[in-house]
User: Fold this.
Amino acid sequence: MGVFMIHAISAANRHLYEDVIEQHFRLRHEIFVEERRWETLRKPDGREIDSYDNEDTVYLLALEDRRVVGGHRLYPTTKPSMMSEVFPHLASVRGCPADPLVWEWSRYFVVRDRRDGVLNLQLMAAVQEFCLDQGIAQVSAIMETWWLPRFHEAGFVVTPLGLPALVEDAWTMAATIDVRQETLDALHERVGMASVVRQDGPRIDAIARANSCGLVAAQRKIA
Amino acid sequence: MSAVDYGREALDFIEGLEAYRRVPDAMNALEAAFGRFGFETIIVTGLPNPNQRFAQMVLAKRWPAEWFKLYTEKNYDRVDPVVRMCRRSINPFEWSEAPYDAELEPNAAEVMNRATDFRMSRGFIVPIHGLTGYEAAVSLGGVHLDLNPRSKPALHLMAMYGFDRIRRLLEPASNPSTQLTPREREVIGWAAQGKSAWEIGEILHITQRTAEEHLATAARKLGAVNRTHAVALAIRRKIISP
Assistant:
């Protein structure tokens, strides 16, 4: 195994990662469409890309040298999000968050040959580490309910926004997850790394970005 | 109740759980909350692997004492069709959905029949699958149950949070290294020297299977995903020397 890190990739430094981003779109198609049969995501070119993949998306991708082995993405909730547009019924009790300090966390994946390893814990550490560094207070997520105990085990503080419902034959729920130093410390200790996220090139200011998205959305509403 | 009422009730219950500082208090809250759905019995338990006994896996329970005695004495967990299905399922299910062949598996039929003698004629179970292969469940039983497509998602979530609260309350606050038994420390020490489970068995005069069992338990206690990871964690926490 070569050099391993989880890279934070945003509009600011994406030019350094075009090959990696491409590879990850194809992996997402392999995993979410071919393997998990989310047919609505199927694309003729074999690249799984949806409306939450754009200039405001931040990707956290685990790289072994240049090979993508897992990852997930973050998206500002000041824009219409997957939860607010596709799954609002899952958040019917507490409502969908729309806040520059809350980012939507989605498309969590691990390549087949890394599923039994420590990578899950590293990926969970990565979302906490990146968000803590950026000042993001919570992530919101549409998640399969059987993952809830796994998040609990990782020390995540998960607050449900409604009751689970069946989505494509899987019990699925909406929740927010707190970003906490103590959660991150415990995960770092467990994976034996002081830091798992690497940011090369120019850095994004996530909160400023979310605020400007919110402003655009508000102006659109007024117009 | 409407779906929204079930949702509010479940989320209020979940929010309230953090306030309990002792397992019996949390169990009282679970008993009251699940009681509103007609449930009379609760068990919060890990599922034993072939080398473990069911009784040591139980985290908390509200079971008739006689039934627990019978269940453990007869090792019913080995033949219980609900336990079998729980290992294979990530979704909650009603006990009646666990398949078995009454002709070919008379033991399975016996568990299900005897349960009805203890007012556990119907039930609902929520499987828990941890990150490192840990298997557990919250199983609820009773006679007259409010079990329908609207109540099940509420029970699903309440059971998972109930499990997490009990699990955390039972976690020792002290350094986890103190949790390893001397034998587990010894086995991890040999594994750190590169010995296989078979070799460790030879060295310690125990079977390979027992050595593997100690390694697996130690790995679980350390929160490791495999043997190599367990060795690394044990060294880092100075449980063994490198």
Remarks:
- The mean pLDDT of chain B is 92.
- Chain B has two domains: 3-170, 182-236.
- Chain B is about 50% helix and 15% strand.
- The longest helix of chain B spans residues 151-170.
